[in-house]
Write a structure and sequence with these properties.
Belongs to the peptidase A31 family. It is a single chain. The chain is α+β, with helices and mostly antiparallel strands. It has two domains: 154 residues, HybD-like (Rossmann fold); 92 residues, no CATH class. The chain has a nine-stranded antiparallel β-sheet with strand order 10-8-9-14-13-6-7-12-11. The protein is elongated, with a radius of gyration of 22 Å. It starts with 16 loop residues before the first strand and ends in a 5-residue tail after the last strand. About 2% of the residues have low confidence.
Length: 273
């Protein structure tokens, strides 16, 4: 299929991405929902530019077509091999040379391994070659159950690996010393690079300790706190901190430092600090 090149034509090519993460499984069946739950955790941590996070559910055929245009694909699903619950398997896509048969399949029996096989058949050269599958051994798949403790632990291990090996290279470099701007209408403004590198989830807590203003990243809006709102087309972000700094807002541009010990952006309120 060719991209649209003349007025009036419609470009049906899907947007490409550097990394596609697909969580497969049924949220209603206990540990079988670990893939979609993992994707929700990644959403809360913040999706960097160039990445896409998809709740693949049980729609394997949708997963296959989602792969078009992706440089790297990560698929996460539950496994039931009889091993210790929470065991994590990392399987390179190259190991799926012997693909499962596609004849006689219908949508209810279409799994992630069928999705890989179908994508190779349907997409041809447009099918990504860099595919990694993470499988997490289940403890139970009862209807209405929560994720078990061992599967939850395994899920967080996989999240750490995905962040380290796939998402971290897409995130902006983290700079130790930056500047922020306090406005006279009670906002703190962060430039786009600072917001993306330190506050990717768009949720923050703002507190004052002694003579320091601290802006602390949270795991997403469900954690409460303040939301960083887009301030301009450049992607600069801002949060309303009027109530936190009532009567002592240091209007203007101020130096700020990343405090590793407190896990926060620290802004000295004393201009001599």
């Amino acid at each position: 299929m060719q991209a649209a090149s003349e007025p009036g034509q419609v470009d049906l090519e899907p947007p490409g991405c550097k990394v596609l993460v697909v969580g497969c499984g049924n949220l209603l069946r206990g540990d079988d929902g670990v893939g979609p739950v993992l994707v929700r955790h990644l959403w809360e941590l913040g999706v960097p530019d160039g990445a896409q996070m998809v709740d693949g559910g049980t729609a394997g055929m949708d997963t296959a077509f989602r792969m078009r245009g992706a440089d790297r694909v990560v698929i996460v699903d539950a496994a039931a091999t009889g091993s210790e619950p929470g065991t994590v398997y990392r399987v390179p896509g190259e190991e799926f040379a012997e693909l499962p048969p596609l004849q006689g399949l219908h949508t209810h029996s279409f799994r992630w391994d069928h999705a890989i096989a179908f994508a190779r058949w349907a997409l041809g050269d447009a099918c990504p070659t860099d595919i990694t599958v993470f499988l997490i051994e289940v403890a139970g798949v009862d209807f209405g159950a929560e994720l078990s403790e061992p599967v939850t632990a395994g899920m967080h291990t996989v999240i750490e690996v995905i962040e380290r090996d796939f998402l971290a290279p897409l995130r902006p470099a983290k700079v130790a010393e930056v500047t922020v701007e306090f406005t006279d209408d009670g906002y703190v403004r962060l430039d786009a690079a600072l917001a993306a590198s330190r506050f990717a989830s768009d949720a923050v807590a703002a507190v004052v300790r002694d003579d320091d203003f601290l802006l602390i990243p949270l795991r997403g809006p469900r954690s409460g706190g303040l939301l960083l709102k887009q301030r301009n087309p450049a992607g600069d972000r801002s949060a309303l901190i009027h109530e936190v700094l009532y009567g002592r807002i240091p209007v203007g541009v101020r130096r700020a430092f990343w405090d590793d010990e407190q896990g926060a952006l620290r802004v000295p309120l004393d201009p001599t600090s």
